[in-house]
Write a structure and sequence with these properties.
There is one protein chain. The protein is α/β, with parallel strands linked by helices. The protein has 19 helices and 13 strands. It has a 6-stranded parallel beta sheet, sandwiched between helices. A 3-stranded antiparallel beta sheet has the order 9-10-11, with helices on one face. Strand 9 and strand 10 form a beta hairpin. Helix 2 crosses helix 8. The longest helix is centred in the middle third of the chain and has 24 residues.
Length: 403
């Protein structure tokens, strides 16, 4: 058997209960499911996760959902009802991990907090994702990715100096929090197995803290020297040259030649041997004071050459460079295809490409077994097969609106 297609994955045998909606918690569940965990996603009956209807919708369902919901068994339960909450309690008895991203205090009000659920299942890794964490004076605040990117400092350094701070057209804060949640789950499972006691623990992820954690030396620079990192447009503070440059065909190329030897090769390729050999530009520290002059010289060259030719010339010179690509160019790129970054599933009788999920594990890789399914499509499978409910019990739950 080809393990890269049908074989074991590293999280085979672990079961995860995913509660909550939208991005951070569900994306963490997607990563765990991709690498083998049996992820049971609980959604409110009738409406489901709002992502099902967001952005580009095809045949009634968001294409985003087909990626975010992949490999998950989808069940419904109205957590506003005691019967729905009881289903969750019963499911957690069969799970290793729970992921929830409700507003802090919500799960406790429902009687589904970590104290209650871990009392019945001490091995449970109870993973919580929220905007501002489970405690502290701002724990109660609502925090979506955009808000937490602002609070955590990312938005402040994004954009042009003196202009309104920008955001990328993606929910970066949610993705960062999801990655931290996955790391937390894996560390907690490892700790559970190493401890010998088999006890789980609570993993507390705050979206703003996930953002703050990637702010490099910003905290230390301010603490020691009073320096506040400011927005720097298409460049990055203290590294020269690294920028986006226009090309003759209207495209842009990103060049990163901040290593001293790379800078020399870049300038020779740009027909500026005089600058390559200038002692005043020999080190990055010296170049920072001449950033505008260097960028002007590089731009004067790139503006006269088509983007692909710029990239080819710099590749030959050993200088890192790449065109700024849209998804149209990315999905057609032979390197992306050769690396297996485009997985194909079937939705509505037609093929649909989904992005593969890293990291690549050569012996036990993850994979997409099936795309995000329909709302409640695994109710009978989970409630009947896992909890042992009879068909008439499931029907009664459906008729009463619990599932």
């Amino acid at each position: 058997m080809d393990t890269k297609v049908n074989g074991a994955r590293p999280l085979d045998g672990y079961r995860v209960l995913e509660l909550g909606q939208l991005m951070a918690g569900p994306l963490a569940g997607t990563y765990l499911a991709y690498f083998g965990a049996d992820v049971i996603k609980v959604e409110p009956p009738g409406t489901g996760d709002p992502v099902r209807g967001w952005r580009v919708v095809d045949e009634g369902t968001s294409l985003w959902w087909r990626s975010l919901g992949r490999n998950k068994r989808c069940v419904t339960a109205d957590l506003r009802t005691e019967a729905g909450r009881d289903l969750v309690r019963r499911l957690t008895a069969h799970c290793d991990v729970i992921i929830e991203n409700f507003r802090p205090g919500t799960m406790e009000r429902w009687g589904l907090g970590p104290d209650e659920l871990r009392a019945a299942n001490p091995k449970l890794v109870y993973t919580r994702v929220s905007g501002f964490g489970q405690d502290g004076p701002d724990a109660h605040r609502r925090g979506f990715a955009s808000v937490c990117e602002a609070f955590g400092g990312l938005r402040y350094v994004t954009g042009e100096p003196g202009e309104v701070p920008l955001r990328s057209n993606l929910s970066i804060g949610d993705s960062l929090a999801a990655f931290q949640a996955v790391i937390g789950v894996l560390l907690a499972l490892l700790g559970r197995e190493r401890s010998g006691a088999g006890a789980g623990q609570v993993v507390d992820v705050a979206i703003y803290e996930a953002v703050l954690s990637i702010m490099e030396a910003s905290v230390s620079e301010f603490d020691r020297c009073g320096v506040v990192r400011e927005p720097s447009g298409s460049t990055i503070t203290g590294v020269v040259p690294t920028n986006a440059y226009p090309c003759a065909d209207g495209r842009h190329v990103v060049i990163g030649a901040n290593a001293d030897s790379m800078f020399k090769r870049l300038m020779r390729t740009a027909n500026r041997a005089d600058m390559a050999d200038d002692p005043a530009l020999a080190t990055n520290e010296e170049r920072v004071g001449h950033a505008e002059r260097i960028d002007d010289a590089v731009r004067a060259w790139t503006e006269t050459v088509p983007c692909d030719e710029v990239v080819a010339a710099l590749e030959e010179a050993g200088v890192p460079a790449a065109p700024i690509q849209s998804m149209r160019e990315i999905v057609a790129h032979p390197h992306v295809q050769a690396r297996g970054q485009l997985e194909e599933v079937e939705v509505g009788g037609r093929p649909l490409k989904l992005p593969a999920i890293g990291p690549k594990l050569l012996d036990t890789p993850g994979r997409t077994a099936f795309p995000g399914g329909e709302l409640g499509s695994h109710n009978e499978d989970v409630y009947g097969g896992l909890l042992g409910l009879r068909a008439e019990e499931i029907t009664n739950l459906q008729e009463s609106g619990v599932v």
